[in-house]
Amino acid sequence: MLFKVEMDVRVPLDYDPARFEALKAAEKARFQELQRAGTWRHIWRVVGQYSNVSIFDVESNAQLHDLLTGLPLYPFMEVKVTALCRHPSSLHDDDR
Amino acid sequence: MLFKVEMDVRVPLDYDPARFEALKAAEKARFQELQRAGTWRHIWRVVGQYSNVSIFDVESNAQLHDLLTGLPLYPFMEVKVTALCRHPSSLHDDDR
Amino acid sequence: MLFKVEMDVRVPLDYDPARFEALKAAEKARFQELQRAGTWRHIWRVVGQYSNVSIFDVESNAQLHDLLTGLPLYPFMEVKVTALCRHPSSLHDDDR
Amino acid sequence: MLFKVEMDVRVPLDYDPARFEALKAAEKARFQELQRAGTWRHIWRVVGQYSNVSIFDVESNAQLHDLLTGLPLYPFMEVKVTALCRHPSSLHDDDR
Amino acid sequence: MLFKVEMDVRVPLDYDPARFEALKAAEKARFQELQRAGTWRHIWRVVGQYSNVSIFDVESNAQLHDLLTGLPLYPFMEVKVTALCRHPSSLHDDDR
Amino acid sequence: MLFKVEMDVRVPLDYDPARFEALKAAEKARFQELQRAGTWRHIWRVVGQYSNVSIFDVESNAQLHDLLTGLPLYPFMEVKVTALCRHPSSLHDDDR
Amino acid sequence: MLFKVEMDVRVPLDYDPARFEALKAAEKARFQELQRAGTWRHIWRVVGQYSNVSIFDVESNAQLHDLLTGLPLYPFMEVKVTALCRHPSSLHDDDR
Amino acid sequence: MLFKVEMDVRVPLDYDPARFEALKAAEKARFQELQRAGTWRHIWRVVGQYSNVSIFDVESNAQLHDLLTGLPLYPFMEVKVTALCRHPSSLHDDDR
Amino acid sequence: MLFKVEMDVRVPLDYDPARFEALKAAEKARFQELQRAGTWRHIWRVVGQYSNVSIFDVESNAQLHDLLTGLPLYPFMEVKVTALCRHPSSLHDDDR
Amino acid sequence: MLFKVEMDVRVPLDYDPARFEALKAAEKARFQELQRAGTWRHIWRVVGQYSNVSIFDVESNAQLHDLLTGLPLYPFMEVKVTALCRHPSSLHDDDR
């Protein structure tokens, strides 16, 4: 099942940079693991923001919740989840 | 260049159904033409809404403006455009 | 899978009352069919509003979309969908 | 009497984790006590958020106020309360 | 139990004045009946608006819902309901 | 003259509890003084919030401003003021 | 007592122009009567809007309500009322 | 040229009181200088808020910007600027 | 003096197309007259909207108000006006 | 391609002034470099705010993202990006 997830990252000005870089590296590794698994199907940067627009393909709401709240940068994020489904006009059966 | 476009369709309760069906058919045809051309890369329905989330891949802002305002259902739409770009963590060079 | 669905009904002041009553009867019949099937698990009135708060238990996002947009009163509704999941503290395995 | 209560938990990034874990444990114990009593009838997680949607069944507004403001995590919560009542179309006399 | 109810009346510019006056007279009669019963405890005009702030004292959420949705002017109203309770600092046991 | 005043209290998580209790006691004493004087005519708790809805009966806007900004908890409050007047349908000449 | 009143006028595209001109003339006459009386102390146009910002000097909330709701263009207005008082730093005792 | 300027002052709870009093004294002195010069034509307190509504009469947008951003309390302010002009119905040529 | 003006055009679905085309032609002629005069310095389309972002260079607030409210399409517009001034870092003395 | 970019700068009250001045100097140098290159085509101050309205002329969304997120003051900014295009009524082919 498909969900649009919008993640907006807010880092306090005085947060320790080294600690944040470590979290970013962990986030990237986790993202790539999920991208390879096909769960995190798409990710795009929003121009001018520390934000992304993502498409997740999961088996259940619970799986999505666990994935999102387990992300290394989750404590810095505002997250917005929107349930999607295939569009009837699409020529692609698997436009995911 | 990539853009997220969110289209929300509002049809007045007393709008002539036959006229609206004709516009919907024209919209579908135009959508599929643009999907085949690779310009309208993705489209998803938003669950419970007469709305879609789409990803466009265009050559310029002007091209996107002309495509959107020329859609048969455009006069019924609220449209929201967000400029996107490739995410640096993505494993896919062409995640569009 | 569980979703909270909030439906807010807006009827134009000059809408034909007989026609609206017929749609309400159809809505009620459809609701009870889905309630019996266990799909529309809960429904409550919001005090002072022509609105309800509902819990749906569906197999997929697509099923929920089809159910909602097929409701007889759908053209009069503002609908808000929120994906839910079981709460880890709950004593009930099937709190749905 | 039924109320929908939405609780959104915000934890400062630098809050002492041990202290927060103790509060969470107390919150869980209090929740289960109220769940067993039938007062906190339903609870669901909101996907991707540190938030829940709950249904309370209380004897009065005052009881609800005391329960909510007495929760161990209350100082971290944004709370939204909506008065509900039984829906006339429901087949269940006690859909609570 | 106490509730603050805010009612905002919107009358279309072209609504038949005689018909509206009849509804207003019915509304006033119904209001005074409820005021005498002690159910509609307080009402105040909001300066510059066709709106009121009211305090209701009811036995249940369901009673409040039935009272509000049965008002003659209800189809013209935006209604906002807020659950209240006695304030612990008040010197009056029955500040209702 | 009547005003609805809504006060929403926000206390930082790390504010010294003893200092806050002292301010609360001062607030309560000041409130009761104004309640006895008939200036602070009504106060109700908003269910689930650290907020109240109050009705003030003052001689002028300036008097209301001085009363509110002089409250011991004022620095912690978001305050919303709405000018009210007697409702023409009310049976009570002095519904204040 | 002083109030800031912001009036925003919305005229439907198909409203009869002659009828509206008559209302505008009546509004202007009423305004000038109140301006001469010192009640409508100031009025300014908001650049680019069919709106004004006004300062009223009235004896009571009730007087302000009656003045505003009796304006010929009132049915076309969105009105926002804010209670003001003299500023302690002002050099003018009667800055009204 | 006339502008409405709304200033909302937010002081952190733990800001040094002596330092803030010094800034307030400087603000008052600067205000009175501008009031005497006729630039800061009007100022009113908003009831219940640490806010004012002011009318400025300046020679240019740039002059207004320099005046506002140079105020001693500017770093504590949310500022909202609205361009105004004389109202055609006013009987006073110089209602400023 | 410089102002950013954002114009959002809303045309009712059933508005007579020929009448609207005539207004559009008049709007274009008026725009070009003001563009040649240097008053309407810049105009850009907002992608996907029937909206523009414009920069006006006028002698006074009153001149801007008269220009905007006199536009042929003004009755269809939502207009937002923001006062601007030269930026101190700019290398161009006349970046208007 | 053209974009409107609105930047709103928020500096914490207790941020080290010398450190902020150094960042401002770096921001100014970077701005002038981009202004000379024709990329940062226009910049204006918003009256009364620590904000600017800018027009960028870039080759791609990605270039704009890199420019904005690389600005020395970026960590202090709220940024809003709007895609623009040439207006068909403009007399200037290169109104950028």
Q: Indicate the overall shape of chain A.
A: elongated
The overall average pLDDT of chain A, rounded, is: 95
Largest interface: A-B, 30 and 30 residues
| Order of helix and strand elements from N to C terminus of chain A | EHEEHE
Radius of gyration of chain A: 15 Å
Question: Major sheet of chain A: order of its strands?
Answer: 2-3-1-4
Helix percentage of chain A: 25-40%
Q: Which structural class do the helices and strands of chain A define?
A: alpha+beta
Number of strands of chain A: 4
| Spans where pLDDT lies below 50 across 5 or more residues of chain A | none
Top-tier CATH class of chain A: Alpha Beta
Instruction: Find the CATH topology of chain A.
Output: Alpha-Beta Plaits
The number of domains of chain A is 1
What is the CATH-assigned architecture of chain A?
2-Layer Sandwich
**Assembly state of the chains shown:** homodecamer
CATH superfamily of chain A: Dimeric alpha+beta barrel
Per DSSP, the total helix count of chain A is 2
- How would you characterize the largest beta sheet of chain A? 4 strands, antiparallel
Can you describe this structure?
Ten copies of one chain form a homodecamer. Chain A has two helices and four strands. Chain A has one domain (2-59, 66-83): Alpha-Beta Plaits, CATH 3.30.70.1060. Chain A has helices at residues 17-36, 61-69, and strands at residues 2-9, 40-46, 51-57, 77-86. With 96 residues, chain A is an alpha+beta fold.
What are its keywords?
alpha+beta; homodecamer; elongated; Alpha-Beta Plaits; 30% helix; 96 residues; 2 helices; 33% strand
